[in-house]
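Weekly puzzle thread! Below is a chain. First person to post its structure in token form gets bragging rights.
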Amino acid sequence: MLRLGRCYPGKKTWGPAYMKWLRSQKLEHGEQRMALEELLEGVRQEGERVERLEQAIREAVPEWSLVELVTAVQAMRGFDLIAAVGVVAETGDLSRFQNPRELMGYLGLAPSESSTGDSVKRGGITKAGNGRARRMLVEAAWAYRHPARVGREKQAKVAAAPRSVREIAWKAQTRLCRRFRFLERKGKRRTVVATAVARELAAFIWAINREVMQNRQATSAGAVDRSSRECARPAHSPSVAIQIK
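Winning reply:
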């Protein structure tokens, strides 16, 4: 379209209005129309493929051992089901990290260091860890450039998480939204700000995982106690009434 001097008059591209505009274009040559139709068909097929994969993920998550963590992570701003599944799948069991700094190092979000004697110089992030999880965290961090709030669509996902997790998610939102604006006012580039927010976002996810594990252990302990009490309960034989004639 740009080669033909045709620019979309709307604001956002690749939405329903944009696709309708593309399909309504009248081209001079049949070959141009054929090329446009092939490209539109490719976009449609890719969209259907994405939908099939997302549906497969939705069906598989309830049977996953980490489903509780996936539900809890969705209480965080910037995470829907697919993003939560992606981060959890890439990082695995977060209980193996003793503290948030270990998780940051695994994700390559820890700052690099150049030390000489008593001189310590901090640099950019190492990028030495899991690049896919790091990329998803940075994408989620961009949601914190707006003021803290819980949208209508997000309320159901927040309500599905335990109370302790909801408190962590709200604390993370208020802090990271404030930090995003603070770093912007200091003149930091937005990409640098998003990376810094993603680093702290990883720490909050680590805290959420700790709460989920504690809730799971408490639930398991309660189930064991109930089972022990039922086993210790004496068995009563049914009374037999004897009638003497």
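Puzzle host: Confirmed. Bonus trivia for everyone else. The beta strands are 111-116, 119-125.
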